Amino acid sequence: MGKRLFVSVDLDGLADEVAAVQERLEGASGLNFTDPEQAHVTLKFLGDTDPDRLDDLVDELAGAVDDAGVDPFDCEFGGLGVFPSLDYISVVWVGTRSGGEELTRLHEAVEERTTAMGFDAEDHEFTPHVTIARMEHAGGKERVQERVREDDPDVGTLALEEIRLKESVLGPDGPTYDTVERFPL
């Protein structure tokens, strides 16, 4: 059985700030909030991965960090956005005010190394973001649209020093994320 893997930058220490942004959206029917304790920027979703490939994957991710040439940096999180559009909302997210360029360089290096290994290429442009909710139905769409248009919340700034390979374990209360490996910048 494979492991459901992804590569991320975690928002360690900002759970309360993420939860405060989620509170602005409370009462929006159809909105399911993510666990603020597990808030992260996904650099690459790898999906179901054969455990026998793990050593090679770790080597390639270490190489990707070297390829990106990104030193530790501060990343400021804030603002609200949605995917794919305000007319059809499936994901509500917090963006980056600074540090987006570094996150994009890390994503591109990870993308290049993992697609060379045979992992699926991304089918959309990378936008550094933290998913805070998913919209299951459009009942509360107007409330979400209003908050996205009117709110510009600050979440905080983190000193980012590593990326992580994470395993997503699906459970009855939603996914939990376990760190498999850390890659210092």
Describe this structure in words.
The structure is a single chain. By secondary structure, the protein is of the alpha+beta class. It has 4 helices and 9 strands. It has helices at residues 15-23, 54-68, 100-116, 141-150; strands spanning 3-10, 31-33, 40-49, 73-84, 89-98, 130-135, 154-160, 162-171, 174-184. The chain has a 5-stranded antiparallel β-sheet, with helices on both faces. Strands 3-1-8-9 form a 4-stranded antiparallel β-sheet. Helix 2 crosses helix 3 (100-116).
Structural class: alpha+beta
Separation, N- and C-terminal Cα atoms: 31 Å
Mean pLDDT: 96
Work out the helicity level: 25-40%
How many β-strand runs?
9
Major sheet: order of its strands?
A: 2-6-5-4-7
Q: Biggest β-sheet, characterized?
A: 5 strands, antiparallel
Query: How much strand content do the residues show?
Result: 35-45%
SSE series: EHEEHEEHEHEEE
Rg calculated over all Cα atoms: 16 Å
Which consecutive residue ranges, at least 5 long each, have pLDDT under 50?
none
Shape: globular
Q: What is the tally of helical segments? A: 4
